[in-house]
């Protein structure tokens, strides 16, 4: 489904519409900019929680980062970390749980305010 939405493949029959428009009439770059995607396998880099959330929007304000974290239901666990948003994550986020990493990735995607959020989750 993701491959079709992103137009890695075009449909053979029927059509997929986004906001009432057939996706074949929307340029691939424009179409892909509408989506935020969080994959099942998350990734973090060594840096603060704030920097990891703001990765896709480096000019984000603290208020925007906190709003995205709240929207992703990550704010409460972040505030329980030793330095909150300034807590430095280990390479690949080894010092937080997999579920917490996923919440941070959701916050990262939500920060860009995509028209559609795609969550690749097996469960």
TrEMBL record:
Domain ABC transporter: from-to ranges: 2-123
UniProt keyword annotation of Transport present: no
InterPro entries per the UniProt record, alphabetical: ABC_transporter-like_ATP-bd (IPR003439), P-loop_NTPase (IPR027417), Type_1_exporter (IPR039421)
Keywords: ATP-binding, Nucleotide-binding
One Pfam family here: ABC_tran
Entry annotated with the keyword Nucleotide-binding: yes
A molecular function (GO) term: ATP hydrolysis activity
Protein name: ABC transporter, ATP-binding/permease protein
Source organism: gut metagenome
């Amino acid at each position: 489904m993701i491959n079709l939405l992103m137009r890695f493949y075009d449909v053979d029959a029927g059509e997929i519409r986004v906001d009432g428009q057939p996706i074949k009439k929307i340029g691939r770059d424009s179409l892909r900019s509408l989506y935020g995607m969080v994959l099942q396998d998350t990734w973090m880099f060594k840096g603060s929680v704030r920097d990891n959330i703001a990765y896709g929007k480096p000019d984000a304000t603290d208020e925007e980062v906190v709003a995205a974290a709240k929207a992703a239901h990550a704010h409460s666990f972040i505030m329980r970390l030793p330095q909150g948003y300034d807590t430095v994550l280990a390479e690949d986020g080894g010092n937080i749980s997999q579920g917490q990493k996923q919440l941070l990735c959701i916050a990262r995607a939500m920060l860009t305010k995509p028209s559609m959020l795609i969550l690749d989750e097996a469960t």
